Amino acid sequence: MSDVEPRWLDAEEQATWMALTGVLVRLPAALDAQLQRDAGISHFEYQVLAGLSMTPGRTLRMSELADFAVASLSRLSHTVKRLEKQGWVRRRSDPADGRCTLAILTDTGWDKVVATAPGHVAEVRRLVFEPLTKAQQRQLREAGRRIHHTISPDAAWPGDV
Amino acid sequence: MSDVEPRWLDAEEQATWMALTGVLVRLPAALDAQLQRDAGISHFEYQVLAGLSMTPGRTLRMSELADFAVASLSRLSHTVKRLEKQGWVRRRSDPADGRCTLAILTDTGWDKVVATAPGHVAEVRRLVFEPLTKAQQRQLREAGRRIHHTISPDAAWPGDV
DNA sequence: GCGAATGACTTGACGGTTCAAGTAAAGAGG
DNA sequence: CCTCTTTACTTGAACCGTCAAGTCATTCGC
Fold first, then answer.
1. Does the pLDDT at position B42 exceed 80?
2. Is A13 near chain B, with CB under 8 Å?
3. Is residue B78 assigned to a domain?
């Protein structure tokens, strides 16, 4: 919009950018594909179920779960409604504060996570960890943290697996 | 699905994975937000326009453009229809092969890219390159390439910016 | 303690993506 | 050449996510 000549990316930067966008586009697609194929759920649905499975009581408030899964409350609400229809989650209003809704993982939902998690972790390991040396993993972690910190300096870490 | 005890991620691996998913979720969202705010288009629409703007003749076959933007032909077809309605792209059947459709960037479309690119590049620079040292950029590039190569060993590089 | 403001969702409509089916041109086989 | 297959899309329906509005608790100011 301004008419100052912008600083374009040089050849090295372009190569870096393409490597990064390649991962940005294909890694989520690959993870979604594995979960869809083996468990019939999306990566986001898996994150919701996994998030609940990791808390004591297998229960979280919708807003806590939304933070964990990095989603809008609206998206989570629609998704939990679908998961509820499948019998994997149920909802009840929080006795401690009637404004809040608790999402609770059912036994069937727990079984679904137990059946799904190993395959998903194996895929993450295969696609992300196996191709990298320990040093590269450390470097990737540090670079990721810096980028993430620049985008949202405040935010806590998103959770997964 | 198998009942072999899976190898879970250790603490370091989890930290790496969270750093990566943080970027995976937030960087595309941040780029989309900037483009939506400043130009009223999605990152994907920008990629389509940018892809056309970089070819001699500002023209590509739909399938070439789909490869470039890493999209299904169906997604591209719907998107180009919208871009056509905005007057940024037009389509005509390829005289050399009647099965193929050529997508052509109009002058208005070119102006749109020229107006949009600097701001977008600046955002990429701010979010990805400025937070990293040159060494980290190299490391990130190498890690990205390895992951990408594991997911699709064959594929050419996706293009952007 | 009563009304207003805030917080925590839920809902419905809309827009974009995918998936399955359709169309039309080019090439292959007999 | 005339069918059959393949290639390169296009289309419409279904599904998911977002955005704007609504609902219902709680809490804050007076």
1. yes
2. yes
3. yes
